[in-house]
Structures are given as structure tokens and as C-alpha cells.
Amino acid sequence: MAYFGCWIDINQPNDLRFPARLLGTTPSNLPDGPFQGTGPLLSIQQHVRSLHQCLIVEIDLDGQTIPSWADPSTSDKLAQRNLTFVGVPNPGVADSRVAPQTLQIRPTPPVPLDDRPDELMIAWGNVPTGTRASIYLPTVDAAAALDWAHRMYVSNRLWLVDRHTLACEAGGVTFVPIPGASDVDHVGLMAVELPPTVHKGERYSVRVRQLTGARYGAGRQVEVAKNVRGRGAAGVRDAVGGISPEVVLSSFESAAHKGFLYRRTIGAFGLEIPVSTKAAMLADEERTLSILRHIEQSVPFETKWWPVFKRYVDLFTGRVAGMGGDPTLVVATGDGDWKHPGRWHHEGGHDDDGHDRWHDECRCEGRCDECRRDEQGDDHARRGPLIGKVVALRYDHFGDFTGFVVETAHDVNVVVWSNERPVERLARQAWVARAIVRVRLLAGDRVDTLSVSGQVDD
């Protein structure tokens, strides 16, 4: 027997290979690549929708075909590992003790086999008393799900938060119905908020499963013969062709054996929540927020993932703030090195507009003449225009607009400053539309002019 393995590194933000969407009616007719001419290409990292991705292993044996409907719960040739770790601090404020996790649910059947919708079964394990959780599913009617819960269960601890969100007190096992037929996967977000009584060194485990209706046995008709004694009855021939007067078939009885219905697991994942401290966690949380903001830029606005991932990033923003960081300073980067996004540096010559040419990074650490002049506040209007996309808006602790962050084509983030409302409105529009902007800067990286100069990236 031979064993084979490979190292899978998906954290390569500049390795652009895949389009944002693949066009095809079924998975079997999707193109295999290379994906040239399909629009802007993204890295594998930009397709990730969580801090982890599950790994499925297939054992391919000659002469043995794995059915298309098989999954790790029904086939001994498929295996799946789906476990994520999201830590919380103590001491810490409520926002920092929220452990968020995105989830993807298989399509629910149009006609449930047992007249009940699919369910999420959440086993809360050893989470402490006072833990609360919310489940956000933008493609599911939360009120309809709550109505099903009242009909299906003797009691439940669910309550309605908004149109697509349910919440509950965590503990024991919670069942959440998923009503409404769908031919595409549901995506959502589960957020577990631990109480302030948790302590460093503790670890909590939560397990989530999707349950659906299933049948054992397809149903069959069985003929049952009775042995009787009697005269004049129709006989049956024995093994040698004669008529046995002792054994006759008095009747045929039809017995239906249709099997039985049960609930089976068609998907599962685990969430591990270790408890640490703010000081130990803050740097990693800021790095995570930076990478998630980088991924957020590539999530198409019109897809089902957009509202989910935006909430996901917002929760990590609250975690950073709750741990004592300033999330407004954390800009989007592919490698998480948000503290060193690069500096503009003069490289001589002029661009097509006749302006001085600058590139996006200087590694002189402030020793070159141009960087020293920058620090002394020389007029930056002589730079060429700053071209890129708005990846973040910045506000102070009063909620007043202070500027925005532009990411250039070289994956460099530049913070520009302004407190003008027209600039805020235009920057917000460009951020939502994911449009390319052109910014001219004054001294101190303040906005001179801001305009939308590129096409919307859809």
C-alpha cells in the first residue's frame, strides 16, 4: 500500500487563478480552467468564507465507482474534517466574547420525506450557563422557522431577532427548522456569545449537524401462504409434481413492509472556543480582521454571501475593539501585515498626465530624501494620482467621518484624510459599488480631489 500527501497553502493573495463565479448549468459542465477571458481572477484565499475550510478526502479504487449522491456519511471511500477554532478573551467586553462562524447548508427538499423540514441540531456541549447564540440565514424566513419549531417540538428556547435571524439560550441540544424548499445551498452565520464568567485556559466545544428525512426500506409486497388440512380444497403440487392433500394454499395474504422513516445527518461541523486574554489575542485578531477585509472586497455584492460575510467581518471588527484595538486603523491586506502597508516613493520621470511618477512602496525606513520631505509635510499634490478601490471608511470615536483607505493595484493600502461630507458620500458610493477611484492628495495625505474614474467591478 502506498500513501500520498500534499501541502495545501491557500494563503497566497497574489496567486490569481480563479474567477469570482463559474458559469454553467450543472457542476459537470463547468470549465476546468485555465480561466482566461472570464473577468478578473481571484486567489483561492479570496474564495474562502471562513477562518477555515473543510477538507474532504476521496479514496479512488480501480473498478469501484463512488455514486454521485454519496457523502462521507454514506460512503466508506469519503472522509471529511470540518473543525474550526475561534477563541474569546477573559477579561473582555461582550463584543470580544462573540465567537462567529459562517456555515453552508445543503438545499432543503421541495417535498420533505416525513412532512417535516430539515433541521439544524446544535449540541452545545460544555458551554456555560448564560451563553447565547444567534443564527442568521438570509435565504430562510425566520418567522416561518419559529412557527415550525412551535409545531414540531414540545418546547423550544428560540426567539425572533429579525426577518432572517433567530436567537436562543445555549445549553443541551437545540433544534432549528429550516423551512422553504431550495435548489441552492443556504449560507448563514452562527454567533456564540459566552458570558463574562469564563476563564483563561477553559475550552468549549459546539457541534452542529444538518438533519433531513430518510427512509429505511423501499417498500415491498410479500405473499404469505397458510398450511391447512381439508377436503375439496385446491391443492398445490409437491416437489415431484403430485398433489399433497395435507398442504393446501387456502389464501394469499398481502403484507406490506414499507420500512420506516428516520432522520439522518447530511452535514456537520465543530466549533472549538478556547479562552485566553485580550493581550495574547489582540495581534492575531487585528491580522485576521485585515485579511477578512481583503477577502470582503472580492465578495460580489449581489450574491447570497455578501450580507453574511459583511456581518461576519462586522463581528470581528467588534472583537478587535472589545480587545482594546482600534479597528478603524486596520486596513485590508492579503497577508495580514496591516501595520506596514508600504509608502509612496518617487522613482523619477512623469506619468502620461505629466505628473511625477511614484511607486507604491519604499523600503528605506525613512532614510531617503523623498521620504524625509514627506515627513516634513511637503506638498503632496505633485504626486501622481492615487488610483485604486476604497476598501474602508474611517470614523473617529464620535462617529464623525475622518477619511478612507484606498488599495492600489499593487496590494498597497493608503490612508487619505478628509472630514468633508461630499467626500464621505462619494467615498461611500465607491466603496459599495466597488468602483475604481482617482484621488489627488495635498500635504498630510489629505484629499484634494476625488472622482470615480474606473468601471464598477461586478
Explain what you see.
- With 458 residues, the chain is an alpha+beta fold.
- Among the domains are: 81-216 and 261-329; 345-452, OB fold (Dihydrolipoamide Acetyltransferase, E2P), CATH 2.40.50.
- Helix content is 15%, strand content 35%.
- The chain contains 5 helices and 27 strands.
- The strands form 8 sheets. Strands 5, 6, 8, 12, 14 and 20 form a 6-stranded mixed β-sheet that branches.
- Helix 2 (278-296) packs antiparallel against helix 3.
- The longest helix has 19 residues, at 278-296.
- The chain is globular, with a radius of gyration of 31 Å.
- Mean pLDDT is 77; it is low at 219-257 and 342-382.
Throw out a few tags for this protein.
458 residues, alpha+beta, OB fold (Dihydrolipoamide Acetyltransferase, E2P), 27 strands, 5 helices, 6-stranded mixed sheet
Q: How large is the radius of gyration?
A: 31 Å
Q: How much helix, percentage-wise, in residues?
A: 10-25%
> How many strands in all?
27
Secondary structure tally, helices: 5
Unreliable stretches, pLDDT < 50, 5 or more residues?
219-257, 342-382
- How would you classify the helix and strand content by structural class? alpha+beta
Instruction: Report the portion of residues in β strands.
Output: 25-35%
Q: What profile does the largest beta sheet have?
A: 6 strands, mixed
Ends distance = 49 Å
| Coarse shape | globular
